[in-house]
Write a structure and sequence with these properties.
Structural class: alpha/beta
Strand content: 5-15%
Number of strands: 7
Order of helices and strands: HEHEEEHEHEE
Helix content: 25-40%
Distance between the termini: 44 Å
């Protein structure tokens, strides 16, 4: 009985944690698919119970954090996309045009590792986010008004034990609330 109580407490604590405190999965290479992006970027509005679903008028703490972190690669110390990054962004572009995501706006966050210094990393991450935005607008006809580029610098490291890990040089796309 005591074990059940402890397990129930752990589950409640995990549910109460903010979405960004939970482990972030970074999609890489073949994991970047239209279906994976649609699932990650579609907000889930409501609370599920055994047999009913209660919808909310406003987003609340039970809402699913709708975001997708992807390993979009750039040439060293630049915002130039690699051919692999362009292939991944082609998948992103197709996903953003799908019916489930067509009505949403998105924030594109660029991230950098801490090797270049705070000011340089801020500018670099902003340039990378702008590059991704421009690629999606120019190559996939995504309405520019649906995309906001945000440079996060080197603040949100996913792998703090290895600051130069590729996961720390990523792009995150976040669905903005309606």
């Amino acid at each position: 009985m005591k074990l059940k109580s402890i397990l129930a407490s752990i589950v409640l604590i995990m549910l109460a944690m903010p979405a960004n405190a939970q482990t972030t999965r970074v999609l890489k290479d073949t994991e970047i698919t239209e279906s994976a992006l649609i699932e990650a970027l579609t907000p889930e509005r409501g609370i599920r119970t055994r047999s009913i679903k209660v919808l909310r008028d406003q987003p609340g703490p039970a809402d699913k954090a709708a975001s997708a972190s992807m390993l979009i690669t750039f040439h060293t110390n630049s915002a130039d996309l690699t051919p692999e990054a362009m292939q991944s962004l082609d998948v992103v572009g197709r996903a953003l045009k799908m019916d489930k995501l067509a009505a949403y706006k998105f924030a594109i966050e660029g991230h950098a590792d801490p090797r270049g210094g705070p000011d340089f990393n801020q500018r670099l991450s902003q340039a990378r986010a702008e590059t991704v935005k421009n690629y999606l607008v120019q190559n996939h006809d995504i309405d520019e008004a649906r995309l906001t580029a945000i440079g996060k610098g080197d603040h949100d490291l996913l792998d703090k034990k290895n600051p130069i890990a590729p996961e720390n040089r990523r792009v995150t796309i976040i669905t903005e609330p309606k």
